[in-house]
Design a protein that fits this description.
The protein is 45% helix and 14% strand. The protein is α/β, with parallel strands linked by helices. α1 crosses α8.
Length: 202
């Protein structure tokens, strides 16, 4: 695995691109910066602002197909970065579950290893619904033995996250917030998923 070229496609909404981060790294840039590959990895962040899981499900396969390699020496990896727009759009939890299940099932059929990052806290009024959504996504991933990063539970009452979010108007975190998300990803099976040794300094 480590001798192969690794291509990672991150699909999700604008949070996947680090909107609000003055350093323009987001959590994805910070995670990859702390991941040591034997060969340079290719990371493609394929984000659509305001996207629900229904919309994500309709486009991800086509968009990743042009980035993934067909050669046996290429290791294709899919990161599903789920946002909060299902809540704002009024999608039922059942529909959100089905959308993620379909994405993961297609990825599995394509022999593409998947990794799921759940929605982080946002507006306080949406807290309970985001928590319910995160739990549902976690269950779907668990049933398929796909790693899931719960970003909601650890950050919902985290003072640094809440302060950072408040500075961004309650919607987007800044450098500190994305740093916290990156830490959670790095410490929730990221290296194991890639077949790489854990970076003790992460």
């Amino acid at each position: 695995m480590q001798d192969r070229e690794v291509r990672i496609c991150v699909v999700g909404d604008e949070l996947a691109t680090g909107v609000g981060d003055a350093r323009a790294l987001g959590w994805t840039g910070r995670v990859v910066a702390r991941t040591h590959f034997s060969r340079p990895a290719m990371l493609f962040t394929l984000a659509v602002p305001g996207e629900t899981s229904t919309q994500l499900g309709a486009r991800w396969e086509t968009e990743t197909a042009t980035r993934f390699g067909s050669d046996s020496e290429v290791e294709n990896r899919l990161v599903v970065a789920l946002g909060r727009h299902d809540v704002a759009s009024g999608l039922t939890v059942a529909r959100s579950r089905l959308n993620l299940a379909n994405i993961l099932d297609v990825a599995d059929a394509n022999r593409t290893a998947a990794f799921v990052v759940g929605p982080p806290p946002g507006m306080p009024a949406e807290g309970d619904r985001i928590a319910e959504l995160s739990d549902a996504f976690a269950d779907v991933a668990s049933r398929r033995r796909v790693p899931y990063v719960d970003t909601y539970t650890p950050l919902a009452q985290h003072e640094q996250w809440l302060a950072d979010l408040a500075q961004g108007g309650g919607t987007y975190p800044g450098q500190a917030g994305y740093g916290l998300m990156a830490w959670l990803v790095l410490h929730t099976g990221w290296h194991a998923w890639l077949g790489l040794p854990q970076d003790e300094a992460s």
